[in-house]
């Protein structure tokens, strides 16, 4: 394929890349991700510290910049412990799988247009393929095997539960993430990242696909196991989750994978919705777009990337962890159905110019569909019986706090029933009233 054809359709031209140029770009991406991770951990601790009115790391290095490096050295010098009941081979391979997939996914992200390096014109991108975005999603789905295998191979209950949670979570939110990207493909007419950036020359897709952008931002939090969706490692109920039994460099690899994954999904969001490496308006109009050529685009790309990374940190310092059933319900019952409806709407709008439908007829049809949808929802809600509403939530009334074998406090609308033996004392403690108001029944000496 000729260079002119590449320039016409917006795809990157790698015809002048030599082996040392490819190796150099791969090494540059690796260094960029590692340095960004070191800075991101420091940045996160400093920002959340300011949000919580505390300084954050400020001792090691100027402004505490070397604190992350010191923590990495500390992890490397710690004793590497493998549990007795662990499956050793899988236990060692799991963190390697998780960390490797995050780096591979960054290979198709374009940092900028073609520039001259040592006399060779080469795009600021390691590689590009016609299905580049699908490649990133596929690599991300493989990365979850690292978390799942880590939980299974540890030979412990809490890591296993964390791994199972993660697998269900990634499957659920990866579907919604994939659906949120389909409107971008419809607008760009391609799945190649360089062609998608080229298609945003005049207008970024955040404007025409704003709902897809919102869904993607939500799903990238769930995809990376970040608050408020870090349920695979929920300290309150799973101790440390899937990495509870890990220590030393193996734990550091999981830590690295999480932050590199944050950078990857942020870079993908920048590429698909914010014009990629293109300068924002009105900077892009100065001197016939001189700031969209050369090495300037790298600056715009990094600025947009750090905007998303700040959003990750901001959300972590602002929102509490959600309940797991709420999280899964939100993904399956809201994000996925609404994304499907949005895809249908975008496809319909894109097909309008090829038909004889006028704008007035279009808006009238949208209004009619909206009224019908509201009426259907109203009819379904009106025909629901109170018994069905009670069955949706938990069981109300009097419940046995020992029904599952372990004492559980009553939920709102429940009261703890008194049981025989040693259970009355605990049941009274879990009741809604103050246990100090009346004496507790004595334990049965036989029980």
TrEMBL record:
Region (Disordered), start-end ranges: 427-447
InterPro entries named among the record's database cross-references: NADH_UbQ_OxRdtase_su1/FPO, NADH_UbQ_OxRdtase_su1_CS
Composition bias type Acidic residues, residue spans: 434-447
Catalytic function, reaction form: a quinone + NADH + 5 H(+)(in) = a quinol + NAD(+) + 4 H(+)(out)
Keyword Translocase applies: yes
E.C. numbers: 7.1.1.-
Chief location bin: membrane
Entry's family note: Belongs to the complex I subunit 1 family.
Record protein name field: NADH-quinone oxidoreductase subunit H
Organism: Angustibacter luteus
């Amino acid at each position: 394929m000729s260079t002119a054809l590449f320039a016409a359709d917006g795809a990157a031209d790698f015809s002048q890349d030599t082996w040392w140029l490819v190796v150099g770009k791969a090494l540059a991406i690796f260094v960029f991700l590692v340095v960004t991770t070191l800075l991101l951990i420091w940045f996160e601790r400093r920002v959340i510290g300011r949000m919580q009115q505390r300084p954050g790391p400020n001792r090691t290095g100027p402004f505490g910049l070397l604190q992350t490096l010191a923590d990495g050295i500390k992890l490397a010098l710690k004793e590497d412990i493998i549990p007795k009941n662990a499956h050793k081979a899988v236990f060692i391979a799991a963190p390697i799988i998780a960390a490797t997939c995050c780096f591979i996914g960054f290979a198709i992200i374009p940092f900028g247009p073609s520039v001259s390096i040592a006399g060779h014109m080469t795009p600021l991108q390691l590689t590009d393929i016609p299905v580049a975005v699908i490649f990133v999603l596929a690599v991300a789905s493989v990365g979850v095997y690292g978390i799942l295998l880590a939980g299974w191979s540890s030979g412990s209950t809490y890591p296993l539960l964390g791994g199972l949670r993660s697998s269900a979570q990634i499957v659920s939110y990866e579907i919604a993430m994939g659906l949120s990207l389909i409107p971008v493909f419809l607008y760009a007419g391609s799945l190649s990242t360089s062609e998608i950036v080229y298609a945003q020359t005049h207008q970024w897709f955040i404007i025409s696909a704003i709902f897809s952008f919102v869904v993607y931002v939500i799903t990238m939090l769930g995809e990376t196991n970040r608050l408020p969706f870090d349920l695979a490692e929920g300290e309150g109920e799973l101790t440390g989750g899937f990495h509870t039994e890990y220590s030393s460099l193996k734990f550091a690899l999981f830590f690295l994978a999480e932050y590199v994954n944050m950078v990857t999904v942020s870079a993908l969001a920048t590429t698909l919705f914010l014009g990629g490496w293109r300068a924002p308006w009105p900077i892009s109009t100065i001197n016939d777009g001189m700031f969209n050529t050369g090495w300037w685009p790298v600056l715009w790309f990094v600025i947009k990337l750090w905007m998303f990374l700040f959003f990750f940190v901001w959300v972590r310092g602002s929102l509490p962890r959600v309940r797991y059933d709420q999280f899964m319900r939100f993904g399956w019952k809201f994000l996925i159905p609404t994304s499907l409806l949005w895809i249908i709407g975008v496809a319909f709008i894109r097909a309008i110019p090829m038909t004889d439908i006028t704008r007035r007829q279009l808006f009238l049809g949208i209004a009619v569909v909206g009224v019908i949808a509201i009426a259907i929802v109203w009819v379904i809600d009106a025909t629901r019986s109170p018994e069905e509403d009670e069955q949706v939530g938990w069981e109300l009334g009097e419940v046995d706090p020992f029904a599952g074998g372990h004492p559980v406090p009553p939920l709102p609308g429940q009261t703890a029933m008194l049981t025989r033996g040693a259970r009355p004392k605990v049941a009274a403690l879990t009741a809604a009233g103050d246990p100090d108001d009346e004496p507790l029944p004595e334990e049965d000496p036989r029980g």
